[in-house]
Amino acid sequence: MDTKELTPRFFDHADVRRDAVPASFRTWQNHARSLMEPLVALMEPGKAQLDIEGMASDHDANADRLEALARPFVLFCHWERSTKAYQDERDASLLAKSKAWFREALLIGSDPESDQFFGYSANFHQHSVEMGLLVIGLELSRDWLWDELSASERERILSWLESDVGNGHHWNNHMFFGIFVLEFLQREGRLREAYRGVVDRWFEELEGMYADEGWYMDGMNQAFDFYNAYAWHYYSMWWVALYGESDTGRCDRFKVRTRRFLQDYPAFFADSGEHPAFGRSIAYRFNATAPFGLAQAMGALPMEAAAARGLCQRSLEFFLSKPIAQSQGCLSLGWYDEFLPMVEVYSTGGSPYWAAKAFSPLLLSPDDPFWAEDEAGSEGGSARSAIALKAPCLIVRKADREVEIINAGSQIASTNTRFGPHKWGRLSYKSAWGFALAKDASLYPFDGGLTAQKRGSEIVYGRHYTAPFSIEEDRMGCLYSLGGKLEQFQVSVETRVWWKGNWQLIVHRAIAKDAATLRHGSYALPVSNDQEARLSESFPMVSASNGSQGVALYSLCGFGNASYDNRLKEADGPRRHIQTPFHATAILEAELGANETRDLALLHWAGTNEEEGQAWAVSSLSEGLWKLEHPLLGEWTVEDDSLPSVD
Question: Which Pfam families does the UniProt entry name for this protein (predicted)?
Answer without folding.
Answer: DUF2264 (PF10022)
